[in-house]
């Protein structure tokens, strides 16, 4: 093994997998058609990798939905409620649910924006190799072999698989999925033996869980698992891959002492790996797969640096293979598909296909000791002296008045009742809205016609909110395709791609914008819409912005300076936008940070520094306003326990959070953590079309009132309404206003 990658995008260059899957779901295509598309996509990837000159090619990195779900099916970790179904029906029911059968939970894959299907494991789970010799990794191995391509099947390792699982609902307290490791390892042993029987030379076991903090007990379990797999007499050679950070020294010691033949380390997200490797005395008699080509970001590799890293490693291990830092599934497929990109930006980019080329070139440079390929151009539009000077001059981002002063001033200025009602920002995105945006992009309607359509929509949404009796209104965000892309398109320093899709989950792909240079705001971005909405009503209209952390989390961000510096540049642009909104008469401004939890580092030790800059960027953006201007923030999609102090440190006047599914617990938690500003716990779950009764929301509000005084409690849904339809939205909001009024009458 000289050159390899840990995985490759499976969605197809033209999103073939999405269309085939959605056709199958909609009954437009049958199982055979979907199966055929899968086989074509796999064949295209394998042959493409071979033609690129890669010498060790992975397989089983394809998935019809998710690779963790594939593992659950492989080892028969299928909860009872799906067992009456078979084949694709069972598989997709586990992923998406069917009538009366809820799906498995879905959650984020480490600190990426990819989401996996969470295995449900209970004491009754009996692992076994479900499909015998027809099992997916075996079938794919043979399929590639039939094309004349030897591959290395990739499996999520048993340790990581169980650590990412959750206990089944009926599991007794204290049960941990990891308790079942030995039984699971038996199944892996069988898979390895069968793969060896089919001729597989190598297998890759992914253990990214080793880059997070691990207990001694977990490390013992790891040692047991790999001792057992290592001892198998008939097995392929084993490569254990870690990625997304620096491996723990204890974990690396276990792998070093085991019989596995190769270890993969991430030298992009885990620069500490070199030290750890030295501290454990290297990996004698093993191959190190050096992840020097970034699988998570879109930048070209600095080949000189990568080559130097590999050369340094040769002192610590016997053999070095060049690899990617992680699977390439996190980056778009092909830069060559992008025609309109600015050549300066393009010159700095590499997508999956280009990164394979980099791995191959580096492998050659290392073997033949030829100099690596050309240098990467520096960002020519990279440095904006104006932005930098202003940032240097800005202070620490503290509001003028303290929170008690602001509370009093805002109460008088806004005149809101206790339990003020509002929404999170977006209203349903109807077919007409989407069509108007598409028509404009395609040049089928003029800008004036487009503006007219959006303003009509805003007027409708404002009138509806007046009719519902909400207290703080929104314009409804009809002009936004996506809360990050909308701003990225208007800021300097960002570029968009046309085909740069990456899988977020299942058939949902996103096209993250590329933040390539210093960020600046050439002109106001939201003021026209917000002031138009405000002109239609005497109630306050809430301006709506996306916060700096979220602007980075859902983009590909330049890696030539610390994220913290880039966050401050985005924050400065937002600060200017907020000043313009304020000057235009907008008295309430919300800065959404749903991704604040998402970027939290995997290791405890790295968290304080992250939270410091994340909070600092938010405060830089929001602290320029008068005491009378009310700053809101909104968070969702996560457990907030680990960032509860940070939420307080943001010092927003009002924080709205997802809470409906956890029965308002967060309100008490926030207060217990010393949070004293306004709180808007989502009193109903917008992720389902269900219309909750007023009584149910009333109950939630009363529960919240046990922990917060009425003047600081807000009544709102738990997220934006853009994915909902109007009938349920109207009915739910009507009940919400009723609930708030009833409770208000009693306080
Ligand atoms: N203001 C955004 C909306 O309502 C917030 C979206 C989000 O939290 N993800 O759509
Ligand atoms: Zn939300």
UniProtKB/TrEMBL annotation:
L-homocysteine binds at residues 424-426, 477, 592. Residues 419-741 form the Cobalamin-independent methionine synthase MetE C-terminal/archaeal domain. The keyword tRNA-binding does not apply. Its EC number is 2.1.1.14. Binds 1 zinc ion per subunit. Pathway: Amino-acid biosynthesis; L-methionine biosynthesis via de novo pathway; L-methionine from L-homocysteine (MetE route): step 1/1. One of its GO terms (molecular function) is 5-methyltetrahydropteroyltriglutamate-homocysteine S-methyltransferase activity. It catalyses: 5-methyltetrahydropteroyltri-L-glutamate + L-homocysteine = tetrahydropteroyltri-L-glutamate + L-methionine. Signal peptide: none annotated. Zn(2+) 1 binds at residues 634, 636, 719. GO terms for biological process: methionine biosynthetic process; methylation. Residues 3-313 form the Cobalamin-independent methionine synthase MetE N-terminal domain. It is an enzyme of class 2 (transferase). L-methionine binds at residues 424-426, 477, 592. Keywords: Amino-acid biosynthesis, Metal-binding, Methionine biosynthesis, Methyltransferase, Repeat, Transferase, Zinc. Zn(2+) 2 binds at residue 658. Its cofactor is Zn(2+). 5-methyltetrahydropteroyltri-L-glutamate binds at residues 15-18, 108, 113, 554, 598. Belongs to the vitamin-B12 independent methionine synthase family. Catalyzes the transfer of a methyl group from 5-methyltetrahydrofolate to homocysteine resulting in methionine formation. This is 5-methyltetrahydropteroyltriglutamate--homocysteine methyltransferase. It comes from Actinomadura spongiicola.
């Amino acid at each position: 093994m000289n050159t390899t990658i840990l995985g490759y995008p499976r969605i197809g260059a033209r999103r073939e997998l999405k269309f085939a899957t959605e056709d199958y779901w909609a009954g437009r295509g049958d199982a055979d058609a979907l199966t055929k598309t899968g086989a074509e996509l796999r064949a295209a990837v394998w042959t493409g990798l071979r033609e690129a000159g890669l010498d060790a090619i992975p397989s089983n990195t394809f998935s019809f939905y998710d690779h963790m779900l594939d593992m659950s099916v492989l080892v028969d970790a299928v909860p009872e409620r799906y067992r009456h179904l078979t084949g694709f029906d069972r598989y997709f029911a586990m992923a998406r649910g069917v009538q009366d059968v809820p799906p498995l939970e879905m959650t984020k894959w480490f600190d990426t924006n990819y989401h996996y299907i969470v295995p449900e494991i209970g004491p009754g789970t009996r692992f076994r190799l479900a499909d015998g010799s027809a099992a997916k990794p075996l079938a794919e191995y043979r399929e590639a072999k039939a094309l004349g391509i030897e591959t290395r099947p990739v499996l999520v390792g048993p340790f990581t698989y169980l650590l990412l699982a959750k206990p089944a609902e009926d599991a007794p307290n204290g049960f941990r999925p990891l308790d079942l490791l030995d039984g699971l390892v038996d199944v892996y042993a069988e898979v390895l033996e069968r793969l060896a029987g089919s001729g597989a030379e190598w297998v890759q076991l992914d253990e990214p869980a080793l880059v997070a903090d691990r207990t001694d007990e977990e490390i013992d379990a790891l040692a047991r698992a790999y001792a057992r797999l290592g001892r198998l007499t008939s097995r392929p050679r084993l490569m254990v891959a870690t990625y997304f950070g620096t491996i723990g020294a204890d974990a690396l010691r276990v792998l070093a002492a085991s019989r596995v033949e190769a270890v993969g380390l991430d030298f992009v997200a885990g620069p500490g790996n070199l030290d750890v490797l030295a501290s454990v005395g290297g990996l004698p008699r093993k191959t190190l797969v050096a992840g020097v080509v970034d699988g998570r970001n879109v930048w070209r590799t600095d080949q000189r640096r990568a080559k130097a890293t590999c050369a340094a490693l040769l002192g610590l291990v016997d053999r070095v293979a060049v690899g990617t830092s992680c699977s390439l599934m996190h980056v778009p497929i092909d830069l060559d598909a992008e025609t309109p990109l600015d050549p300066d930006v393009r010159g700095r980019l590499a997508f999956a296909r280009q990164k394979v080329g980099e791995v191959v070139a580096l492998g050659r440079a290392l073997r033949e000791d030829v100099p690596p390929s050309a240098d990467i151009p520096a960002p020519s539009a990279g440095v904006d002296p104006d932005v930098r000077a202003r940032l240097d001059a800005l202070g620490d981002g503290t509001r003028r008045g303290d929170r008690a002063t602001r509370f009093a001033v805002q109460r008088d200025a806004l005149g809101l009742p206790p339990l003020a009602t509002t929404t999170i920002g977006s209203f349903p995105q109807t077919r007409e809205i989407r069509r108007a945006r598409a028509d404009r992009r395609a040049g089928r309607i003029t800008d004036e016609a487009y503006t007219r359509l959006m303003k009509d929509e805003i007027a409708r949404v404002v009138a509806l909110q007046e009719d519902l009796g909400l207290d703080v209104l929104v314009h409804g965000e009809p002009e936004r395709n996506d809360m990050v892309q909308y701003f990225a398109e208007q800021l300097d320093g960002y570029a968009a791609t046309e085909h740069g899709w990456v899988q977020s989950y299942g058939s949902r792909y996103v096209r993250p914008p590329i933040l390539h240079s210093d960020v600046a705001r050439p002109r106001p971005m939201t003021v026209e819409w917000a002031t138009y909405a405000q002109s239609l009503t005497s109630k306050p209209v809430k301006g709506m912005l996306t916060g700096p952390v979220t602007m980075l989390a859902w983009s590909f961000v330049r890696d030539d300076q610390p994220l913290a510096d880039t966050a401050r540049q985005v924050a400065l642009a937002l600060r200017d936008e907020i000043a313009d909104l304020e000057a235009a008469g907008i008295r309430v401004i919300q800065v959404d940070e749903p991704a604040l939890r998402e970027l939290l580092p995997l290791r405890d030790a790295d968290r304080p520094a992250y939270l410091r800059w994340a909070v600092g960027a938010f405060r830089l953006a929001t602290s320029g306003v008068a005491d009378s201007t009310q700053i809101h923030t909104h968070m969702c999609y996560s457990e907030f326990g680990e960032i509860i102090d940070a939420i307080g440190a943001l010092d927003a006047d009002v924080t709205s959070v997802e809470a409906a599914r956890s029965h308002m617990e967060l309100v008490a938690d926030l207060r217990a953590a010393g949070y004293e500003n306004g709180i808007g716990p989502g009193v109903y779950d917008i992720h389902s079309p269900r219309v909750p009764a007023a009584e149910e929301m009333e109950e939630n509000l009363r529960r919240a009132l046990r922990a917060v005084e009425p003047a600081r409690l807000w009544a709102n849904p738990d997220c934006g309404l853009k994915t909902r339809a109007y009938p349920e939205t109207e009915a739910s909001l009507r009940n919400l206003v009723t609930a708030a009024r009833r409770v208000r009458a009693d306080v």
